[in-house]
Specification:
62% of the residues lie in helices and 15% in strands. By secondary structure, the protein is α+β, with helices and mostly antiparallel strands. Strand 1 and strand 2 form a beta hairpin. Helix 1 packs parallel to helix 4 and helix 6 packs antiparallel against helix 7.
Amino acid sequence: MRQSMTGFASADGAGEGLSWSLDMRGVNGKGLDLRFRVPDWISGLEASLRSAAQARLARGSISVSLKVIAEDTGARMTINETALSDVLAAVARIEAAAQAEGVSLTTPSAAELLSVRGIMEEVQSAPDVEALRARLVHDFDALLTTFISARASEGQALGEVIERQLDAIEALVAEAETRADARREEQASRLRTQLSRVIQNTDGVDEARIAQELALIAVKSDITEEIDRLRAHVASARAMLAETGPIGRKLDFLCQEFNREANTLCSKAGSAPLTEVGLELKTLIDQMREQVQNVE
């Protein structure tokens, strides 16, 4: 499946008295760069998520964020036995001191004792970290599937754009061949005229040397090999687009080869119409390479 390196997916979940939100974002990158922002207190979570991502992704700069929130579970109240003992001991000492002074005190009620700060405490149950990690890993696997689906959808669109660009490149290559054929007679006429001038103004012309120079000029201006290689590159690119798995790096290298042939064609052009086609080719190849940068 052809994929883009850009994509986004998010998911929410709840369990173990907690709720959470996961999101995953990807942009292009030379290799696979995974960055996680997850709570440290969930031991082993990042390692598990990283392993799952590495098993299903090949390239891209990927960031994963997890936010965990404690739900209102109606925490129970309990008596702090130590604080209660301290308060009762203090009450007993106060009553004893009062009796020694002949002072009569009213014994505090249970409700009054409970109102003393520190006697009653709110107890929150600690989450089961092992169970929580298992739930989060399960949710992340589903998130990965959604993320990969999003990248595949964009990859399909990218492929269609690149296919159209290949069609345009192929058409320009055909146009270059047509203009090169039209240029051939013009070049021959120009060379004959120049050669005639040289012969008329030079004594003892070495005809063999002139023939060698003409042959060299013809070779230097012949773009047949460049045309053939450009067509071969178009066929290779289309074959890559039909492959499964990561193809971005291979396509990027092929774009460099496309550009090399277009540069050579421009240097050999020798005519304005053919140079124009060569420049259009270079522009289109650069545009295609920009798209290829996002292919996984």
